[in-house]
Amino acid sequence: MCGITGWVSFESDLSRRADVLDAMTETMSDRGPDSSGTYLRQRVGLGHRRLAVIDLPGGAQPMSVDTPAGEVALVYSGEVYNFRELREQLVSNGHSFRTDSDTEVVLRAYLEWGEKLVDRLVGMYAFAIWDEREQRLLLVRDRLGIKPLYFYPTPDGVVFGSEPKAILANPMVRNVVDLDGLRELFAQTKTPGWALWKGMHDMQPGTFVSVDRDGLRQRTYWKLSATEHTDGRDETVARVRELLTDIVEHQLISDVPQCVLLSGGLDSSSITALAAERLGLRGEQVRSFAVNFGEEDNFVPDELRETPDAPFVRDVVAHVRSQHRDVLLDPAAISDPSVRRATVAARDIPVGFGDLDSSLYLLFKGIREHSTVALSGEAADEVFGGYPWFHHEAMRNVETFPWMAAIPPMGLAARSDHIERGLARRLDVATYTADQYSTALAEVEHLDGESEAERRMRTLCHLHLTRFMRTLLDRKDRLSMAVGLEVRVPFCDHRLVEYVYNTPWELKAFDGREKSLLRHAASHVLPRSVVERVKSPYPSPQNPQYAALLQQQIKELVAEPDAPVFALVDRGWAQQAVEQDPTTVSMGARANLERVLDLHTWLELHSPELDLG
Fold first, then answer.
1. Are 197 and 239 found together in one domain?
2. Residues 126 and 237 in one domain
3. What does residue 352 show for φ and ψ, rounded to 5 degrees?
4. What is the predicted pLDDT for the residue at 27?
């Protein structure tokens, strides 16, 4: 896992701009703490920061190959899990290898198959190839958007990077945020291509971007498509089990210490148990980590969580005999301004998931002391239809993104009532959200003859896989890579996603519960308590001290007469928010306290030019 960046200019001599390329590359030192490298020619500069996971001595980048017609160079981030199979095929086709890395497999695969190499890759990846033979840059992002990649077109080329901060380090790029950028920031609809900064683009999953003297072109090579599902219930469960077993087996390939993230829910427990099964065949023991707020004895069920995680974590640990550690966090740690600064810096955007971001960052930081790679249960709810609103008729039929109607902190009021009043009118987040919802609906393909009920459920699954899941994947990548931890997401293997996406809803919920297919596919390796557990999301601290600490930080901001954040935030709202009894602060209100502090931190970090006209 790594960070990549680069610059292509067809009218400048970039061989003299090593200082700029070095600065761009250095912004991602956290993503790649093990080594750094650059490739500099007249028309192109490529930068790479490496987190060594496969072939520690041999996988250095940028990596290049000389051909009779010119050099081909690669910078690559991610993992191709079937690289060993591809390597064997390439060797049989006459290629020779200098390293044992998956990086060289990707480079040789491009030499053999050109752009069609993507049809053969299974994994998470974002990479850039400079082909001197064609004087062309090719950017590629994986099918589900697990690994990030951004680009900024220039008059004579492009600047790109794994994160916006790498692009912003280039003097060709202006640090401007306008109303269009802010609309999506506050709406959080995950508009395809949005990157906050004016002129910058988040490269869409499953696409190529090619840049040559004739300009920049984008092309889609993969998207979710509707196909007929012909397997019965037993065959479908068996196929899901077969796919998951193979996926976990391949994602356990690593030359560095690895572990699993365990919450005691069905998703993470399934990955933990399957990993324990596969590692057991090698005579190895799985290692697991869980976040713990020390609130089990005082836990109170709420609208999202019926049970604490800790008892179920203990059941899984005992069942699979994992080597387990809890990462214990308290309100002071989660609300620490230095932690907030680290999470906002990692994500490059000022509105995230508040305490969920802070606790996840601290969990990853604790794990990184013992491991370099972690497997996660992320995305199972999107793939298998696990969220509660999939199973409530009223929520299924709301005319907006369902998670916005179902999760208080993501509702329209919660996302808007803290914004400065004049700015709120100009942004009109409600209209923007409605327009994005209509656009998202139009992207869904349906099969002829589908019932209205099946069409609706396919639509809900598509919305989650193409919008909501991308937000969660971006969050997980940024916060894990900020501490040099590679997190792998088995449920995002495109083969599994394609298969389950096209499974009819009546099979996805055949036992009357959420995630029926996963529950039955993994039941053979799980303790009964977890098989029967009701869906519970990632935990959040219940201690009102956390809200009180946020209020105190906001109070200090309100006391500053010229605090820049109040160009975006309504000062009156902030003054009222800090006076409320912390024991009565709702989830939505607490989320807005976090958003204000995020905005304040972001303005300090980036000093953006705000175009609010």
1. no
2. no
3. -120, -135
4. 97
- Position 463 scores a pLDDT of 97
Residues 322 and 212 in one domain: no
Q: Which of 124, 118, 208 is nearest to 160 (CA)?
A: 208
Cα–Cα distances in Å, from 435 out to 411, 430, 442, 607? 16, 9, 11, 30
Query: Is residue 584 assigned to a domain?
Result: yes
CA distance 275 to 284: 10
Digit-coded pLDDT (tens) for 360-382:
999 999 999 999 999 999 999 99
Same domain? For 131 and 38 the reply is yes
How far apart are the C-alpha atoms of 433 and 439, rounded to whole Å? 10
Neighbours of 604 (CB within 10 A): 12
Do 560 and 499 share a structural domain? Answer: no
Would you tell me how many other CB atoms lie within 10 Å of the CB of residue 281? 8
**Two structure tokens written together for 433:** 């959200």
Burial of 501 (0-12, 13-18, 19+ CB in 10 A): buried
The verdict on 264 and 337 lying in the same domain is: yes
484 Rama sector, left if φ>0, alpha if ψ -120 to 50, beta otherwise: left
> Are 163 and 61 found together in one domain?
yes
Residue 324 CA to residue 176 CA, distance in Å, equals 46
- Active-site residue identified among 2, 259, 461, 492: 2
Digit-coded pLDDT (tens) for 18-65: 999 999 999 999 999 999 999 999 999 999 999 888 878 878 899 999
8 Å CB contact between 251 and 503: no
Distance CA 274, CA 246 (A): 10
Contact call for residues 134 and 115 (beta carbons, < 8 A): no
Q: Say what the pTM is.
A: 0.96
Whether the CB-CB separation of 67 and 107 falls below 8 Å is answered with no
243, pLDDT greater than 90? yes
Q: Confirm whether 98 is domain-assigned.
A: yes
In the predicted model, what is the mean pLDDT of the chain? 94
- Per residue in 439-454, pLDDT (tens digit) is 999 999 999 999 999 9
Residue that the structure tokens 């509105």 belong to: 351
Residue 427 lies in a domain: yes
Q: Is 461 a catalytic residue?
A: no
User: What is the pLDDT at residue 180?
Assistant: 94
pLDDT tens digits along 4-14:
999 999 999 99
User: Cβ contacts of residue 302 below 8 Å, gap of 6+?
Assistant: 542
Instruction: Pick the last residue of a domain from 500, 531, 562.
Output: 531
Q: Are 21 and 45 in contact (CB under 8 A)?
A: yes
Residue whose token pair is 């690559």: 76
Whether residues 160 and 249 fall in one domain: no
Residue-level pLDDT at 25:
98
Which residue has 């088995």 as its token pair?
490
Range(s) of the domain holding residue 515: 233-531
Identify residue 571 by its one-letter amino acid code: R
What size, in residues, is the chain?
A: 613
Does 413 score more than 70 pLDDT? no
- List the one residue out of 184, 196, 547 whose CA is nearest residue 355: 547
Number of domains present in the structure of the chain: 3
